[in-house]
Amino acid sequence: MWTRKGRLLGLPLTWCPSTLRGKGGDGLFKGRSNKSGLKVNEALLETAAKGQEVRVQGWVRSVRAQKEITFLNINDGSSLQNLQIVARSDLNIRGITFGSAVEIWGKLVQSPHKKQRTELLADKIRLVGACNPVNLPFKIKERHSLEYIRQFPHLRCKTNVFSSLLRIRSEASTAIHSFFKNNGFVHIHAPIITSNDCEGAGELFQIEPASRTAEKHENTHFFDVPSFLTVSGQLHLEVMTGAFTQVYTFGPTFRAENSQTRRHLAEFYMVEAELAFTESLKDIMEVMENLFKITTSHILSNCSDDVELFHKYIAPGQKERMEQMLKNSFQVLSYTEAIDILQRSTEIFKFEPKWGCDLQTEHENYLVQHCGNIPVFVVNYPYDIKPFYARDNQDHPQHTVAAVDLLVPGIGELCGGSLREERLDLLQSRLKELGLKDTYHWYEELRQFGSVPHGGFGLGFERYLQCILGVENIKDVIPFPRFSHSCLL
Amino acid sequence: MWTRKGRLLGLPLTWCPSTLRGKGGDGLFKGRSNKSGLKVNEALLETAAKGQEVRVQGWVRSVRAQKEITFLNINDGSSLQNLQIVARSDLNIRGITFGSAVEIWGKLVQSPHKKQRTELLADKIRLVGACNPVNLPFKIKERHSLEYIRQFPHLRCKTNVFSSLLRIRSEASTAIHSFFKNNGFVHIHAPIITSNDCEGAGELFQIEPASRTAEKHENTHFFDVPSFLTVSGQLHLEVMTGAFTQVYTFGPTFRAENSQTRRHLAEFYMVEAELAFTESLKDIMEVMENLFKITTSHILSNCSDDVELFHKYIAPGQKERMEQMLKNSFQVLSYTEAIDILQRSTEIFKFEPKWGCDLQTEHENYLVQHCGNIPVFVVNYPYDIKPFYARDNQDHPQHTVAAVDLLVPGIGELCGGSLREERLDLLQSRLKELGLKDTYHWYEELRQFGSVPHGGFGLGFERYLQCILGVENIKDVIPFPRFSHSCLL
Questions:
Q1: Which of A326, B59, B304, B420 has a 20 to 30 Å separation from A104 between CA atoms?
Q2: Segment B98-107, tens digit of pLDDT
Q3: Of B136, B170, B486, which has the smallest distance from its Cβ to A449's Cβ?
Q4: Measured distance CA(A159)–CA(A140) in Å, rounded
Q5: Does one domain contain both B87 and B200?
Q6: Which structural domain range is residue A248 located in?
Q7: B251: chain A residues, CB-CB within 8 Å
Q8: Which of A42, A238, A245 to mutate to test the interface with B (most CBs of B within 10 A)?
Q9: pLDDT tens digits, residue range A378-420?
Q10: Are residues B333 and B196 in the same domain?
Q11: Do A119 and A230 fall within a single domain?
Q12: Neighbours of A351 (CB within 10 A)
């Protein structure tokens, strides 16, 4: 933290406002400034703890009173590990319970215990915020189920498992942005509100000002046209491939589907990338596989404690499954081969596998198992089941497009992508066929001014987190899940 | 780019899919793989250009035909600079015009020209996508106004100025994430859809499934309750300060206001941060000032060419104004002092400055000028004009709260923040007073389980870009602007 060292990372001292401002302004402020102090993860990592005076702030995770001494465990969200506080009996610890917020001054010393490097010998303890553990829905030393803690969206960050999840999610976001930046992609904020209404990616949410909804202005719209929450940033990224060779976006997308499965949310995050001058699905798949592997490897090495909690208590065996996925090359099957494998299997499916129909989750899971429980690319889907923008392979008799899905163990579809139809004549006739010609006039125009072969994909961020951590329910990997009948907070 | 070097950044070779997969799978793919090749910015930076064979892809920015030789300038979005291609007269360049997409193989050599380090002696040129310059709304060598190019949201990335803007925006996002990560903040995705409807931050967009809107199910809702697009992630970040000491979010926020000013959008991006164990506004302001200065300094050093384009052609004098902002400490005024300054000025205001009323843009601009055209913090606003969560200063006779706005030259309000009321009794009585007690029961509960003094702020990302680049209209710093009567694409 910068305040401890008196200056901000990489910032020349002359820019540090608190040292420069100082005089005069102070009268305006109440309260003390949050200077000095150590975070718990910093205290735990202190290699030369020799009794230096420090201050630590956080929440009490346990209180163990002995005759002469009380031990407190303190957590401040900086890591899964707690800092042990050793408090002599003459210190006032009245009111300090599981869940209270405290501030502690003391001496940081080497710990006699093997499990932790340092501990804090308290000189002074201040109760910052009390907590009545009787009313708190989480109980000390109890391991609550993910389902149970999900009922308390405003408090669940106080549990070990959910604070670990949030740290992993934050680190995963960092890793994804770094991956693209390191590989020369430009980050684009695709719009959330859009007037595109017919991409066929599922049911849409429509928006209007709250006041207007109430007054029922039926034929007027805030934006003059009906407007919706985005289902994908792809078309907007395609705009950018008119001037950039590689772009990506990472933001919220929406589906108004009345589904309550463990893999669906009404609001979820997608990572989408688009590559210009790309003539082979292979290039797209290479980015998908590398994104998966490099991001995962980053998370495993930067959040090892947090990931271990999931792999140990939530999904035993997941660690080994992850290693399998990382060390092997992802498999590749054509859609036609996939259907063939499904038809030849002895498995009884609810939906009969048939050329020309979409793969169901049961089919996806079978294919992944069939390939040895590692991720599988399925390529070249039937022309008729993919959206208008997928590039025509012009093959026959089985007419396909250059589309790809990535299926992963335990989840099914994690990514979907395709080459996009860059040939104006083919695009025009398909749009006409589908009655979309007027709506996508601008999209056609992209093919008239220096059009290039291009393609891209989208990865469901929550499904990705489910996949690497082994979390069953998608609602447990997002801070505030939204699904039909539920929009808490 | 990774494909050129045959392996991905930081990735062991054994993970590289294209080298491992190879056999067998190839039959599935059409088209050639996008292997080898150099980006324009890489080609320009090549210090040891001695005729090595390379391939470059991009769009033609100019064609200059001489008797023996044709010069092409190629841009691929990797930088503002173009790569000069030298084409002998025996090469086929039929159909290659301003705007076409091309692929060129040749030898990279030192350039005889001062302005560029390298140029490409072409051996082969392929027209990838033609362009009829007559139909393209942008003309070669013409400098179009921002207002003009704004009419073509699907094509404007093809202009120098807008591709520079997009690179700067991408780099600014990176800088902001780095700032928070380097300083120990955890990144939280605050929800976009929320059931909070009364924060008083402006008019809301309401959402329902498109099918439901049409069918006019009046008293049922997809989420069972009315739901809206977020105006701020603050309350959700406050949830997280129950377990993390520093959190932030960076995402889209929305206002359904019918305003068409140069500073307002219906969809815009906010950076919001929240700090636990914070008892002074000063700590919040320190983060605001450092975020501004460090991010700006990062952009200036990583996007110097792109920024220079704005400072030279769009906003002359902006460079010097930026330097002023960066090298001086931001000023601090209390709201009461600010009103006093405004009342004593000889300026004629449209709105009379009066204690107890909000500052208008004209007031904000006057205060910034009064302080020497550097950013100014205004602190301690009247209790009655700030939202319920602002912390009561319990002063009198002029009752204020610990809130702060940051005003910047040319823009006015860039950031707003406050300490939050962490004292349960004061919060409860205020919520009761405002009739919000039932809605914010969960928010009250945050104050019952280890509540800590905390505070935070939000920064308008587009206004920030306007401020550093000197761009007059907010619609010119976002890829796809949404405002009343307009939602193109």
A1: B420
A2: 999 999 999 9
A3: B136
A4: 10
A5: no
A6: 158-208+222-476
A7: 251-252
A8: A245
A9: 999 999 999 999 999 999 999 999 999 999 999 999 999 999 9
A10: yes
A11: no
A12: 13
